[in-house]
Design the sequence.
């Protein structure tokens, strides 16, 4: 609470200064309070005297005065005649609206015989200055208390309203749309900062720019008929805006309208953010060309060719055996191209049945089939819009799906399952297969026109057996991922690994190294363990590729292996099988094989 002493007109600048400093409620007594209430927009609480207060003052001075003047602001106090009869004194009312009127009224009253003046503090002082006695009518403590309580209540209500208004303004300013509210006559009541930003003006609540804009978007039509106008596109100041105008009703009457709008270009920004959200959901490429390990001539040529292809938007087909890294290369192609910041969506076409794959690729409308998700589904092509979709094992899709995919590649448009509208898209297609796609076309299992669409550019990933010089570098990276050093393998082990054909390529090599580090009991290279694990691979691979008419399939899994090395491998295989049968009894095994234990040990060591 702040206390300032001032009366009548002198109180106005004092009160205004307090209001400017943030005071919510002004408390004034008598005529000063009433004058402030008339002149100020801020709430003013008046400490008004009661008839009891007047009677108490008259009773106190009744023996000292015969003719009393009572001052009052604006109007005569009722009941003065009753007070005069009750106390047997004469009473003259003085009505004033300004200090000058008060002074003149008291002077005239004194000239007419008044010998006592009662009223506010200024009245008493004026009377005494003119040589007349005077007293102040002092409100009771209860009157003052009620005035103070009223002032506190108003201040709290004001604070609550200001707080609510601040929250509302903050909410409006946090919106991504421009907001303008008008009353039923079209007068602007409020707007947010976005509205001013979008219209390139500093005016928030009024001004010709806002008025002109509201006329263009036809807010008067909403005020007339009360109809909500959603998603309307209009042009203003050579720019396009998307507007939503909603009427405000109180009961059945239209009390105003609210216009929400944003530039059409803003929608593209939102679309870009949504696409970033799609990427955050996992539709992003994780690998680059640095993840294509190897410095062999084959790998250097692959990287050079692929980097050149990445700079175009043409469709790319990746040919490669299983485990060679076809998906890794697809990631790298996307990250090196102009669509790197857009979604990358990968799908294995062989992993889904034909009917499910169609709805996954192209999406579906709500109710398109039994079990369709409410609201429908976008589909992977739509999620990949502006980016890249990687179709792995493309050779395995059905003839019907081949037709649908061909249409998408030719028109860059999709139809959702159960849909009736065409959805334009811009997607780069990277596909792959371990099968020879040209032979699939020759066999009639794959459409030739789709083949030509998919294979605008071709990349062949060399199998691991054609770049065995890369095995040490690949092993180093794989061991590091497993938490081990590349020193876990010696040059002899690397040489041993280079003798295998690796039909499973890098994926098979990674699995072997994983088994190797799990079974090792120390940090030193173990040629025997690695040889055993490699022999197991050879045995299992031979069984997978064996047919009733094939013999010696194991030899086809070895690369650059001499006859002596193959004989030694077979000897170790026989020794291991015999040891297993004899529960690892070396003496019995050596006796059965007709060799000494020393020879048995030497052959197992590979010496």
Sequence:
């Amino acid at each position: 609470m702040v206390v300032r002493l001032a009366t009548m007109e002198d109180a106005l600048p004092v009160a205004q200064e307090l209001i400017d400093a943030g005071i919510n409620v002004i408390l004034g007594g008598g005529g000063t309070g009433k004058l402030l209430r008339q002149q100020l927009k801020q709430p003013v609480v008046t400490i008004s005297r009661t008839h009891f207060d007047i009677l108490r003052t008259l009773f106190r001075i009744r023996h000292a005065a015969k003719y009393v003047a009572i001052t009052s602001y604006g109007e005569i106090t009722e009941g003065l005649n009753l007070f005069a009869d009750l106390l047997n004194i004469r009473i003259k009312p003085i009505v004033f609206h300004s200090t000058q009127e008060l002074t003149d009224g008291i002077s005239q009253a004194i000239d007419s015989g008044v010998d006592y003046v009662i009223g506010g503090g200024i009245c008493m002082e004026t009377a005494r200055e003119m040589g007349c006695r005077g007293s102040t009518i002092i409100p009771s403590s209860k009157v003052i208390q009620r005035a103070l309580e009223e002032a506190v209540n108003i201040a709290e209500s004001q604070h609550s309203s200001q707080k609510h208004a601040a929250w509302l303004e903050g909410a409006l300013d946090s919106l991504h749309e421009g907001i303008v509210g008008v009353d039923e006559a079209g007068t602007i009541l409020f707007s947010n900062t976005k509205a001013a930003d979008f219209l390139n003006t500093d005016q928030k609540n009024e001004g010709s720019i806002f008025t002109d804009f509201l006329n263009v978007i036809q807010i008067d039509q909403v005020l007339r008929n009360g109809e909500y106008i959603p998603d309307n596109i209009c042009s203003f100041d050579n720019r396009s805006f998307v507007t939503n105008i909603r009427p405000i009703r109180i009961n059945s009457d239209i009390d105003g309208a609210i216009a929400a709008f944003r530039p059409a270009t803003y929608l593209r920004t939102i679309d870009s953010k949504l696409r970033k959200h799609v990427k955050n959901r996992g539709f992003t490429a994780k690998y680059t060309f640095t993840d294509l390990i190897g410095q062999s001539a084959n790998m250097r040529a692959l990287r050079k060719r692929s980097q050149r292809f990445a700079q175009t938007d043409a469709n790319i087909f990746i040919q490669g055996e299983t485990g060679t890294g076809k998906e890794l290369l697809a990631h790298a192609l996307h990250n090196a191209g102009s669509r790197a910041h857009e979604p990358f969506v990968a799908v294995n076409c062989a992993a889904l049945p034909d009917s499910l794959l169609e709805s996954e690729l192209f999406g579906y409308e709500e109710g398109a089939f039994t079990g369709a998700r409410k609201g429908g589904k976008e589909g992977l092509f739509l999620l990949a819009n502006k980016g890249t979709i990687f179709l792995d094992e493309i050779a395995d899709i059905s003839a019907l799906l081949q037709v649908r995919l061909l249409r998408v590649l030719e028109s860059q448009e999709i139809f959702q399952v159960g849909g009736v509208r065409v959805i334009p898209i811009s997607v780069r297609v990277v596909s792959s297969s371990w099968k020879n796609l040209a032979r699939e076309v020759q066999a009639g299992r794959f459409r030739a026109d789709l083949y030509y669409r998919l294979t605008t550019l071709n990349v062949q990933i060399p199998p691991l057996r054609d770049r065995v010089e890369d095995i040490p570098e690949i092993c180093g990276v794989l061991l590091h991922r497993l938490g081990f050093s590349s020193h876990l393998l010696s040059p002899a082990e690397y040489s041993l690994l280079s003798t295998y054909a690796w039909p499973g390529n890098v994926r098979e090599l990674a699995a072997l190294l994983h088994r190797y580090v799990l079974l090792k009991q120390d940090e030193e290279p173990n040629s025997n363990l690695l040889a055993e694990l490699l022999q197991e691979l050879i045995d299992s691979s031979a069984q997978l590729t064996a047919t009733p008419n094939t013999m010696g399939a194991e030899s086809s899994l070895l690369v650059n292996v001499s006859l002596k090395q193959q004989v030694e491998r077979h000897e170790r295989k026989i020794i291991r099988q015999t040891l297993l049968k004899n529960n690892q009894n070396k003496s019995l095994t050596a006796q059965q094989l007709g060799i000494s234990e020393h020879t048995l040990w030497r052959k197992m060591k590979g010496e």
User: Anything to note?
Assistant: Residues 367-372, 546-553 have pLDDT under 50 and may be disordered. The longest helix spans residues 141-174. The chain is about 45% helix and 15% strand. The CA atoms of residues 465 and 502 lie 6 Å apart.
